């Protein structure tokens, strides 16, 4: 259990000093000889106080569970071990960061793991233990212990001096009455915790000091033991925004919580480095850490070393320091600085000259004077942080208000110390928040473009291509950073798609261009706007030498060039409100006063009072703040566990499913379930919610534990022949293209007439040609007169050699929109055609002297003359290129799908690369295999029916970031709303898309840009979605869970687990929009649950006997249920009122209802069946009136139906041959039915696979999603 319980605030309290015998010897020697002469003593561990401090009386049945095994609280070091051996042992264990228990130097004592008693005395007295003639002021310093696994413990050390009096054990503050001189010896009190509560533990030790000043030596251990026992009663707050407060006379102390489980609590002053260093020096230090140099901090104040070091490491988040870290090196540990690896260590300033003289290649940082140097030079010759990010950081830093006194000038003077401390604490929290935002922004600006060069499927980072996109002056910095462990760990998180503060800020500060690229895959070339900006920023003189190799077409990311980054950063500095958001408000919960006596019954009473107070807190926020409610449940569950109230603890942890699963204590829960007694298990089985929880825990534990794949590899060119599967992987890894179908066509092109494998040399030539073409595109230098004729977003993708044309001599240029001629001599622009205006393209021959030269002729609408270009050997390739772009443009326009044009552009660039690397007579035949759209144009009639064209508004691809299309299982539209006063509260409407495997993609329904590329909601297929006014989206899954997504944070931290079978339907009673909405869910076994959507509690449970309950709807308070072979209307008490069975002719075949629509005002019920191409109309007001069949043309079955205004929209499975084929795929239909005339009003064709789902966007648009062979979403206008 010790391994699973979150530890309390205190892990151990250790007293270190000189032994009584040694002090007696020193006292006698000084009084006999009369001089101290800088006497240093060997410090020893005098006491180790660790839990448990309380045991239950023997006649009681069960003890309060201790955290860990029973340990003796008093330890006296043996004196056999010589000082040299102790120092050697200390050095050895400290190099490993500690983690051993007390060894040969102790009596029969067991101490908490991770506490190294051998190294601790040196660290408590890093300057040595001194005996003095005068009493010195108390001093504090801070320690961090790291074990070999990277786990940290934290220590706060208080040194105080006590008088040494011969023949007495009193520890009075006066000088005593002895005729001999009074001597003072130092003692250290070290409080050790798993959590970095430096300020809180310092406050605690300050409170202890008040008692120690008047106590006798014989009472000291008892006082310290009582102090330690109180701190073990203090739980650590769970991650979130709930802080804990407790009183330790005379102070009130606050434990801040960590922001989330992946980050530590911050309980120190993050502005200390800003007081010690100017921004330029601070940037130098950060650069050294990012490059994993050997860094040593120096200060004359031991306390500053750890506090500054901890702050610096926090500034690096989300990057986590992976190298040795010892912020305080005692005098005997300086040999650690000879370690050959990177490290971060701290030394006393008095060792500065010695360290600088005897070591090489160290970065020496003097905290006291703010200087940064090396052991060889007064300057640091290391690459600096890129200027754009550095300038932004410097400007932000200057706006920080880092002086508390200035902030308090206009405030009333505090007359109460705890009130003053509260003011200071609030000011510090706000300042810490601002500093974290500034440093996080710096990290985002440094690494923003890393994601552009990642392949998530194969976990590849293309470091070479990333480096090519950096400015020449930045290359060395990034090259060094990319080789570090700290960056490698960061890459793992990126490839795992971790959603943290870094990911959220990177998303919120994207440029408009980057947001647009998320909508459409665009091959990356410099746009006209970028060429103009580059020219204005005087970069063009280096144009030929600065080729920025771009990543490849299907990654769909923004181009990265310096002027774009600089303009983005300056925009953020001036106007970005996301960086000025105040910290989220926190709630402070006050613990009960500590019991006067620390007996078992007093501690039990303390815990009981704490549970009672938590119960009141839970009641007070029951329907207001689920996030805060989860923290109270967590704390109460933890305390119940300590009190062996296992069933109560399980009940509290069960409530985390409905409040916040992010803090769910999985290991503790497993231990609780395994430790249940037989009678407790029987009681749990009688409580449905606990029975479900126990079953879930058991099931999860029985699953095979699959280690997550967190490897990261750099892209390398292949060294052996590639079969098709290997070729697909390799092309995706290097980022050329993601789409599997396109890669298969590329494979066929490169293996034309050869065995079906690609030679590694051929792949290398192809890859090199592709990259060189990208780089050359950066060198296109168009005259300003030409740029003025083009759109800002246009890019030049292909340029011919200089040829003779019907409009003069020049080069033919191709953008994504048009062809134009760059005339020679006097630079000029002549538009040949826009792709949508082309009428005909063909190869001809033009006479030249006695021969005929191949030429390309292009006929354009609105222009009578034909444009002809004598392209010679380039003619056949340009013919393929122009026809493919023409076909892509035509399909994009007809289908309202811009991705067709993007894919055509990708095909063209691949053709160009194939022609460049396949130097054979069949190269043009090989390239023609990539002309996909031109082939479709000739094989399949491209004309889209007029009704479809007029109704279709747009198409989007939710699988844009995936290698292959995914089935669109469910669609949900949520309207925009203004819920807060700040700009972040204004929410655009959203489109929620459920794909296969529990993936949810979110689009901004105002611009149709992708907001969230993947919210993982379980791992099973998602069946239904529902939006509620409480800013929640409910999602029913095949795994029987209802997942709840917060529409603000886009996180899924709530689950409803009451269903036992797959959740198939969700509906809400919309009659009450303001109060708590009544929500209903159903599962396939016939269970229907009515929920209070605010408290997430089940209000009523119904059961319907049927083979499969597939969906439910509520109309006028009445539930309608789709039960496979019948539609059932339920009364309010759950009793079936009416049944509409399958038509007789469908009973003989295996068929079932797939969907239905109720129109109460018309007295109509419309039903559709999976295997029937017709709708059935039932009259709900007249049972005797027979049902009516409405045939659906071209449909083999109905998959979904929705009502929009006074229309019925029907999603169908198409028959073979309906609407033609597209590459062998069926084309399905969306049909619009008029319920009054009972006829099909519109037949709409936009998908090449069956329609899976329909949803309405405020009755203005209907969205349809299709199965995986198509995988797209069509947006239709409603009339």
Automatic annotation (TrEMBL):
GO terms (BP aspect): regulation of Rab protein signal transduction
InterPro entries: cDENN_dom, dDENN_dom, DENN_C, DENN_Domain_GEFs, Quinoprotein_ADH-like_sf, TPR_DENND3, Tripartite_DENN, uDENN_dom
SUPFAM superfamilies according to UniProt: Quinoprotein alcohol dehydrogenase-like
Sorted UniProt keywords: Guanine-nucleotide releasing factor, WD repeat
Compositionally biased region (Basic residues): 66-79
Positions of the UDENN domain: 85-501
Originating species: Seriola lalandi dorsalis
GO molecular function, one term: guanyl-nucleotide exchange factor activity
Family annotation (PROSITE patterns): DENN, WD_REPEATS_REGION
Stretches the record annotates as Disordered: 57-108
Protein name as annotated: DENN domain containing 3
Record GO cellular component, one term: cytoplasmic vesicle
